[in-house]
Automatic annotation (TrEMBL):
Principal localisation: membrane
Subcellular location: Cell membrane
Chain segments annotated as transmembrane: 21-43, 70-90, 102-124, 130-148, 155-178, 198-224, 245-267, 287-306, 313-333
UniProt organism field: Amycolatopsis rubida
Protein name: Iron ABC transporter permease
Keywords: Cell membrane, Membrane, Transmembrane, Transmembrane helix, Transport
Organism superkingdom: Bacteria
Length: 341
């Protein structure tokens, strides 16, 4: 049996995991508040509180908070948590530091399914959008694993995912370019954005996302055992096939729902687990907890940067994550240990 491929452990930051996680939660709360307050006009935290507790639609600032900025922030929290945790589970389960739902075609499969559904049916409800995204993500995940199943090396999986992503993205673009109505509705969603999302999609997606997040956080021990190698995992009483199947199912749900909510945002699932391991080391129980917090933190920061980087226009959050994620991918791909795996 082939030896397990292990993700190279980065140098760890000297911080207690519990204290660091509490600090990350505090930072997320501050960034979430800034996301609600910041915009073309600044809204004070007091006004935000009034909009939540004593909503007056006659006040334009409270109307903006309730109908635009709060939904935008909630989309960032949900999609960021889903993609961050999905990336952490995926990298650990396939033992590949370059694994990411965007790079392996999972997000692209969800996006294509939604676009095909919209073109076929004309309009989608919140539930149909989420179910289509899940179906597309599941099919893409199955295809990329079938393409790479003959080799356990990280390069084969990466190449298969990259090829599948290119094919699915091209198909999505072809559909959008031949259907003006679909293109007009989804041109910002296609690059990943937190704005203009129907509340029905967010609510239904959250109903699927919350249980998946809870289930994913419980996988830490199983992933730790799996990292020791299949033989040792079996000797410790863990069956690898069910554990891998459950991990794949959780990744599909997290990635599919996040894509349905915010569009195909790339590189977030790649960056977050590496940042988490810098703080926690290889213990997946802490890596997963950090990923749930760091994912929305980075996505909301990207969205805030996009609001002011190209003013008065805005850059979608997916564009910002791609700008910062691409150099990280190049650095990781050039690491000696990965090349020798």
């Amino acid at each position: 049996m082939a030896p397990a491929q292990r993700i190279p452990a980065p140098h760890r930051i000297a911080v207690r995991p519990g204290a660091g996680w509490a600090g990350a939660l505090a930072a997320l709360a501050i960034v979430a508040l800034a996301s609600v307050c910041a915009g073309a006009t600044f809204v004070s935290p007091g006004t935000v509180l009034d909009a939540l507790l004593h909503y007056d639609p006659a006040r334009l600032d409270e109307l903006a908070v309730r109908t635009l900025r709060l939904p935008r922030t909630l989309v960032g929290l949900a999609a960021g948590a889903g993609l961050g945790l999905a990336g952490a589970i995926l990298q650990s389960s396939v033992r590949n530091p370059l694994a990411d739902p965007g790079i392996l075609g999972i997000n692209a499969g969800a996006a294509l399914a939604i676009v095909l559904g919209l073109t076929t049916m004309g309009s989608l409800t919140g539930s149909s959008t989420a179910w289509l995204a899940l179906a597309g993500a599941a099919i893409a995940a199955a295809v990329v694993h079938l393409l790479a199943h003959r080799s356990r090396g990280p390069v084969t999986l990466l190449l298969a995912g990259t090829a599948l992503t290119a094919i699915l993205t091209s198909a999505t673009s072809a559909v959008l370019l031949t259907d003006g109505g679909t293109f007009a509705q989804f041109r910002f969603w296609q690059v990943g954005s937190l704005t203009g999302r129907p509340v029905s999609v967010l609510l239904f997606g959250a109903a699927l996302l919350v249980p998946a997040l809870g289930c994913g956080l419980l996988l830490g021990r199983a992933l730790n055992v799996q990292a020791l190698g299949e033989d040792l995992a079996i000797s410790l009483g863990q069956r690898s096939a069910p554990a891998k199947l459950l991990s794949s199912a959780v990744v599909v749900v997290l990635s599919g729902v996040a894509t349905a909510i915010a569009g195909p945002i790339g590189f977030l699932g790649l960056l977050v687990p590496h940042l988490a391991r810098l703080i926690t080391g290889p213990d997946q129980r802490w890596v997963l907890r950090y990923s749930v917090v760091l994912g929305p933190l980075l996505l909301l920061l990207a969205d805030l940067l996009g609001r002011f980087a190209a003013g008065p226009a805005e850059l979608p959050a997916g564009v910002v994550t791609a700008v910062f994620g691409t150099p990280v991918l190049i650095v990781l791909a050039r690491r000696k240990k990965l090349s020798a795996a």
